[in-house]
Design a protein that fits this description.
With 232 residues, the protein is α/β, with parallel strands linked by helices. The protein has one domain (5-228): Aldolase class I (TIM Barrel). It contains 11 helices and 8 strands. The radius of gyration is 17 Å and the shape is globular. It binds ligand LLZGTKA7. Ligand LLZGTKA7 binds at residues 7, 9, 32, 112, 115-116, 153, 175-177, 185, 187, 205-209.
């Protein structure tokens, strides 16, 4: 069972150090655009030097050449996972994956399908999609697979369909994790940790329910035990 990935959505490395300093075990953490843009590559090196596994969640989305060259640079960072937006298209994804793996052959490269903050109404009326949200997730997941990537970011709600249609070994990395006592915040397609396990997600990503908790270590262990099925 993979560890829950903790989203380190902080502004400064100081805050990250204070947060991680509360734990006496190695974690799987996620650095997103907020921390990376404000603190840069050094924060990645520091967190890796502390012994934590790292998902660098920059959701790259640009023309193929720009993304491939950026991915080559990210490949030189010793991280476990990176991602792009599937809407960048198959050529962008194919080149991103190859460029990353040239430097980091064991790393996982995935693509974001529909964000977990997206709902059916947005897909239909804002993005003017002719297909449903679920069909769009599946379409983007199929494109991601064809481009040679390892898996996708989706809501856990879509994990069963992705595994059934695309393949059991195709990885689903799933944010949008909330327990009944948590606020939804800006998340829409939410699921509890135990439901995510039942739905077959390979990884869960959890931010505010842990980082904003009055006791982050306790919150992490509670979520981890629900995810691993120890509380039943
Ligand atoms: O579809 C997506 C893709 C990425 N995320 C990221 O996951 C975390 C979730 O944080 P919470 O505080 O648990 O909501 C955050 O870093 C997002 O950028 C996502 O939520 N949905």
């Amino acid at each position: 069972m993979t560890k829950p990935i903790i989203a380190l959505d902080f502004n400064t490395f100081d805050e990250v150090q204070k947060f991680l300093g509360q734990f006496d075990e190695s974690l799987y953490v996620k650095v997103g655009m907020e921390l990376y843009m404000l603190e840069g590559r050094n924060v990645i090196k520091e967190i890796r030097a502390m012994g934590h596994d790292l998902f660098l969640d920059l959701k790259l989305h640009d023309i193929p050449n720009t993304v491939a060259r950026t991915m080559a640079g990210l490949g030189k960072l010793d991280v476990q996972m990176v991602n792009v937006h599937a809407r960048g298209g198959s050529e962008m994804m194919r080149r991103a994956n190859l460029a990353f793996k040239e430097h980091n052959p064991d790393g996982i490269c995935i693509a974001v399908t529909e964000l977990t903050s997206t709902n059916e109404n947005m897909v239909k009326n804002e993005l003017r999609s002719e297909i449903s949200l679920e069909e769009s997730v599946l379409n983007l997941a199929a494109l991601t697979k064809q481009a040679g990537l390892d898996g996708v970011v989706s809501s856990p709600l879509e994990s069963p369909l992705i595994h059934k249609k695309i393949g059991e070994n195709f990885v689903t990395v799933t944010p949008g994790i909330r327990m009944s006592e948590n606020r939804n915040d800006d998340q829409v397609r939410i699921v509890t940790p135990e439901h995510a396990r039942e739905l077959g997600s390979n990884y869960i990503v959890v931010g505010r329910p842990i980082t904003q908790s009055h006791n982050p270590v306790e919150a992490y262990h509670h979520i981890k035990s629900l995810w691993e099925g120890h509380n039943e």
